[in-house]
Amino acid sequence: MIQEQIEAVPQNLEAEEQIIGILLNSNAALTKVPWLEPDDFFNPVLKRLFESITAMVEKGMAANALTMKDAFEPGVMIHDQPPIAYLARLQGEIATTDPVGFAKTLRYARSRRSLVSIGEDLAKAARLSPPEVIPTEIQGEIEDRLAEVRLLAPRQDTRTAIGSYADAFLSSLSPSHSSGRGVPLVFPELEQVIQEPLEGGNLYGLLSSSGEGKTSLMLQIAEHAARKGSPVLIMSYDQNGEQVFRQIVSQCVGTEVTRIRRGDFSEKEAERMISETNRIKALPIEIIRCKREKIGRIAAYARAFVKRWQTVTEGTPLIILDHSRKVQPDRPNDHEGRIAGAINGECKAVAEETGAAWLNINQRNSGGMSRPNPRPIARDLFGGEQAKEDFDAIFYLYRKEKWRDEQLKIARDAKEKEQIMQRFGDCEGKAEIGAIKVRYGSDNQRRELIWEGRFTRYRSEQQGDQVEGLF
Q1: Are residues 285 and 208 in the same domain?
Q2: Boundaries of domain holding 81
Q3: What does the pLDDT look like over 383-423, one tens digit per residue?
Q4: In terms of domains, do 221 and 326 share one?
Q5: Is the model's pTM score more than 0.90?
Q6: Vertex 11 angle, CA 7 and 13, to 5°
């Protein structure tokens, strides 16, 4: 008996029939469970019915017992009943008009079926894999599949009455709440562009091209946030932990990374680096070197990080993904807009779920080189305009000096070079930051930062010669 229970496939026929009955009774109930999918159904007949109902509703047609009877071949019997009789029974025997509870039951059963399959495959791989397959390879594949199961969890705000949001809103108006809200930004120019600190539950994007210093700015944002009490997780596809730490030290002490690597520094500089190293190593920063992770595992990293730190500090967590274009897609053949949307959508969902602020570093495409003015626009995002949807704010980093030099390399003659020089003007050592999207503000904000290439860092014009973390 126990063995039969262990080997039973997780399913719930009654819940599946209730869902179909509710939808046949009221097609509008579909809007309450937009995340429900055909694969949530185990019974093939009910799965087919759900597919037919959703297809008809999407076309503006009514789906009920009468209209759905033609979904089956003539003479087909369902549980010893003609289709019209079976559908009428489902429509007439519903226990409630709300599908959410039953839909969750289906989704949880589907998740359990996936877990059973993963467990069986793990046991098989552990027993039968050849000796050259190292355990971490098996583990990595299983972790990806487990992360996909985690993504199956239905995410929706169950509140509907506007009054249910009142207490949270009133709490946000108190001075004590406002003063500690969000992740503080390293430069006043950044907050002026985004028009707020990085708020928990929001998704932000930083767009820039290779070589403009987006990673440098990201590290300055991270170090400042951690110093102000926000735990920071950096998930990088570009740098390992040693490289990240060395660059932060370089930025803080004002000694070039190349000199640090060669050991070419003075005794005074060495003392500074030792002091800064001891300070930085105490900051709440974690670094994960990513390689081939899909968004499911990225999300799992973020959840685990927030869980570790939520009882240690009251600061809003900051999750940084550098950079989002390198996340392995679940469906590589999809259009890049859909791929980017899936990645950004999951980042936004995890930010809302954990209360963390999430910053995606975005590598812009090469479209800017074909424009006389290559200032970043939404079309330069990975996924284009479609990729903007889930972001609460997107800001760009634009160093005219870099783009001027690129255009000068391919100028046809002296006249074109002169036009390029006039177009870009005085841009040495300057960087522009601006808004591409701000959900609750103006996207016409632009400010300038000072670029100090020797130390791969930025400096605020408004703060004068002050550099965050510098002795």
Answers
A1: yes
A2: 1-154
A3: 888 888 899 999 999 999 988 888 889 889 999 999 989 98
A4: yes
A5: no
A6: 130
